[in-house]
Design a protein that fits this description.
The complex is a heterodimer. Chain A is built from six helices and ten strands. By secondary structure, chain A is of the alpha/beta class. Chain A has one domain: Rossmann fold. In chain A, helix 5 links the parallel strand 7 and strand 8. The chains are: A alpha/beta, B mainly alpha. Chains A and B meet through helix 3 and strand 6 of A and helix 6 of B.
Chain lengths: 205, 267
């Protein structure tokens, strides 16, 4: 990663157009968490995919002074990382999906210290979801796009996930765009909250 | 040593065996008798026609006609590669990548073998060039078709997984590496297997043919080894080129997975 993407920066969406949605302008400060909600099918996930440059889209996004198009796509996604709602695993054991093979911060999410050696096929959906978050954070992204990161979790695990993300965002000065259905969760974690409407984003709080 | 001639009625006896098989299949309601007969007729007609063409070709033996023949063979092979895939690349890409990779590998290896190793005069002597190119293309076609079919099908099935890897910041080459490795392997397995089984389980067709036509077995064996190695090289390079080019085509310049570039499955 180069200097531009290593330092703290604002995540900016400039006139982003995804399918029928947009143009959307939004700036998220370093360390700030912005919540995004909207009915199913309103395009929340597609918006996150466009910011990660996984789908064709109009407008652009930037992190700090570096625009999406100025970096090779994989470098942009290393900087601005998307955590999808459903996590998928390609190797047999958990550790093979982590740089260096070690799962950091497992205890903070209530996971066993030996989790790196576990078989992926035996994980519960809640374990997979927490590990998917750790898999993203282990790559030290400079911007986070989270698609319902606690949808399959019980309350205790949800609070731990929130604490870990908040902590990471503040410590590393990382802007976060967080899709959530849960108004209470949005109240707990987000500074600002936007709803997706037919026109684009509408600030809710 | 003189060759025993085969007359048409002797071939008819062999054909009667296939007809008997078809009748049996029909009686047992196996539903294969129709395609068995059609394939049998195609064999007879296609081979008779190619016999006429080869007789004419051997008697003229000019580079232009040999090249024309080679081009027609290549075009048919390119068509076959697309037909054997469940989800080929859409548009001209499916046929284009298949044909180009077969051209690069089969033609290069055949010409190299003719000029450097066998050395007939002229180097394009059709008696050597056409059978060698035919065997090369037939095997390369199988490898390329298997490789591309495996690649496009597994990328389609694993599209969500490949996108997950892209989201984690992997390059497209890393994200598609597993599918690419599987595809290359399935393209190469048939030729590796036939090299391993040659002479023990099976007597290769060309060697058998040469021995039947009176060539000393020791010479037929040498030709067979030469052909096996060149076929392996042709199949291997062809499969590598085709799988690499098709992998590249499945991602755009922003390293996005583009399964929309695959042709939807026909119902």
């Amino acid at each position: 990663m180069n200097e531009a993407t290593r330092t703290a920066g604002h995540l900016r969406l400039d006139a982003l157009v995804v399918g029928p949605l947009g143009p959307i302008d939004l700036t998220i400060a370093p360390g700030e968490i912005v919540a995004l909600s909207g009915p199913s099918g309103s395009g929340k996930s597609r918006l996150l995919r466009a910011v990660a440059d996984l789908d064709e889209h109009g407008g652009s996004a930037a992190l700090g002074s570096t625009g999406q198009g100025e970096l090779p796509a994989h470098r942009w996604r290393q900087a601005v990382m998307l955590l999808p709602a459903e996590s998928l695993w390609w190797a047999d054991t958990v550790g093979e999906h982590f740089p260096g093979g070690a799962v950091a911060s497992a205890a903070e999410l209530g996971l066993d210290a030996a989790v790196a050696g576990w078989e992926v096929g035996r994980l519960s959906s809640g374990e997979k979801q927490r590990l998917a978050l750790l898999r993203v954070l282990s790559r030290r992204p400079r911007g986070l796009l989270l698609d319902e990161p606690s949808a399959n979790l019980d309350e205790a695990a949800t609070l731990r996930v929130e604490a870990l993300i908040r902590d990471y965002a503040q410590r590393e000065e990382v802007p976060v765009l967080w899709v959530s259905h849960d108004p209470e969760q949005i109240g707990r974690v987000a500074g600002r909250h936007f709803r997706i409407t037919a026109q684009g984003l509408e600030q809710a709080s | 040593m003189t060759l025993i001639d085969l007359s048409w009625w002797q071939l008819a006896l062999a054909a009667a065996l296939v007809v008997a098989l078809a009748a049996l299949a029909h009686g047992a309601r196996l539903g294969m008798s129709g395609s068995l007969l059609v394939a049998g007729v195609r064999t007879a007609v296609q081979l008779s026609l190619i016999g006429i063409v080869l007789e004419a070709l051997f008697s003229t033996a000019t580079l232009g006609w040999v090249a024309l023949m080679a081009t027609v063979m290549l075009a048919m092979a390119g068509r076959e590669v697309v037909a054997r895939q469940k989800r080929p690349l859409a548009g001209w890409w499916g046929a284009g990548i298949g044909t180009a990779s077969m051209f690069v590998s089969s033609f290069a290896v055949t010409v190299l073998t003719l000029v450097v190793i066998v050395g007939p005069t002229p180097w394009y002597e059709p008696q050597y060039a056409i059978p060698m190119l035919g065997m090369m293309l037939g095997n390369t076609m199988t490898g390329v078709a298997l490789g591309l079919d495996r690649l496009t099908d597994s990328v389609w099935r694993q599209r969500a997984l490949i996108e997950t890897r892209l989201m984690l910041g992997e390059r497209w080459q890393e994200a598609v590496a597993d599918a690419r490795r599987d595809a290359t392997r399935s393209g190469l397995i048939p030729i590796v297997n036939s090299m391993a089984a040659a002479g023990i389980v099976s007597l290769p067709g060309m060697m058998t043919g040469q021995i039947l036509s009176g060539t000393p077995p020791a010479l037929a064996v040498k030709y067979q080894i030469l052909i096996m190695f060149t076929i392996t090289a042709g199949t291997g390079f062809g499969t590598l080129v085709a799988v690499s080019a098709a992998s590249r085509r499945l991602f755009d310049t922003r390293e996005r997975l583009r399964v929309d570039r695959l042709r939807p499955v026909r119902k």
